[in-house]
Amino acid sequence: MTNSRPQNIAILGSTGSIGTSSLEVIGNFPDDFRVTYLTVNTNIDDLLAQVRRFRPRGVVVLDRDAAAVCKQALNGTVEVLCGEEGLNEIVQREDVDTVISALVGFAGLQPTVTAIKAGKKIALANKETLVVAGEIVMGLAHTHGVELLPVDSEHSAIFQCLVGESADEIHKIILTASGGPFRTKTAEELRHVLVEHALNHPNWKMGSKITIDSASMMNKGLEVIEARWLFGVPATRIEVVVHPQSIIHSMVEFIDGSVKAQLGIPDMKIPIQYALTYPKRSPSDVGRVQFPSLHTMTFFEPDTKKFPALLLAYAALDAEGTMPATMNAANEIAVALFLQERIQFLRIPDVIAETMAHHTNTLHPLLDDIREADAWARRYATNLCT
Q1: SS (H, E, C) the chain
Q2: What is the pTM of this model?
Q3: Which of 262, 273, 287, 375 is in the most buried spot, having the most CB atoms within 10 Å?
Q4: Which one is predicted more confidently, 54 or 1?
């Protein structure tokens, strides 16, 4: 791949799993991509190592104390910005062509919206942006003529399956799920799950929040909502299938009965590279599927009795309005409390359900309504656990 000039990239969340994988991809194409900005929350040591290798023009550190440490360490060699204001500043700059939105959770919404309004190409790894404000975000992308390319492996797979196809020929979307580390556990065994068990995903290397979401199957619920907005398909035509091998990343069934699937080893560098090089494909050094060694690929229906979080996501999508934002906020609080060992694993969906049950839903919300719902849900979910 060779462009007339390098594509300038800002990575929101550069030291997380998506951010580090993105930098690996970018490092393989030095003539095609240039990192202009990197952003982190508090992880200064890893950020400084990234700065030494990729020499960005600036960095944003969300935590103010960490920003001061970073500024001292860089000693004027690289611009250091701070806080959410810094994020919203750099995504609008002329020396940014593409924003990789890889922040975790609700925090990714505002800078992604700002980048869309500035006309930037978006490589979207932050699924919560569409979960909480899908109608608004997709409307803005259309208004500003912005490409919004999915980085999630499942949504990248669907996107690839739809290249050359017509949206009105889609019968249904089939999202595959690994089933996480607890697929074969009994309900009784789930009562005794520890944090280290939940963080031990069988196939993927991810950050702690998304790994816990995978263990509870809330991650798949979030992906259902994301798929609804990305591809304009109602929830009734979005199906989840458990596929433990994680080789088929998702499928599309068309009205004539044909099914297209995208396959590959479980490596996030594949969908990241596709988002950055689209509509072209470029060589990569990732591993290949060795079909004879697979022997078999298996598929199961999700067990929503053991993993009710998936049904909660469908319910939030059905309710629309501010309910998805409420569900997402309650989940973020519950996951954080579980990671702190303050609640049990099985308490996560209970906290979400109780918060949703007490939320007064606002239909056709503005961004301010979504922010208010998010803040309310965080307070309510926290109070449930104290």
Answers
A1: CCCCCCEEEEEECCCCHHHHHHHHHHHCCCCCEEEEEEEECCCHHHHHHHHHHHCCCEEEECCHHHHHHHHHHHCCCCEEEEHHHHHHHHCCCCCCCEEEECCCHHHHHHHHHHHHHCCCEEEECCCHHHHHHHHHHHHHHHHCCCCEEECCHHHHHHHHHHCCCCHHHEEEEEEEECCHHHCCCCHHHHCCCCHHHHCCCCCCCCCHHHHHHHHHCHHHHHHHHHHHHHHCCCHHHEEEEECCCCCEEEEEEECCCCEEEEECCCCCHHHHHHHHHCCCCCCCCCCCCCHHHHCCCCCECCCCCCCCHHHHHHHHHHHCCCHHHHHHHHHHHHHHHHHCCCCCCCHHHHHHHHHHHCCCCCCCCCHHHHHHHHHHHHHHHHHHCC
A2: 0.94
A3: 273
A4: 54
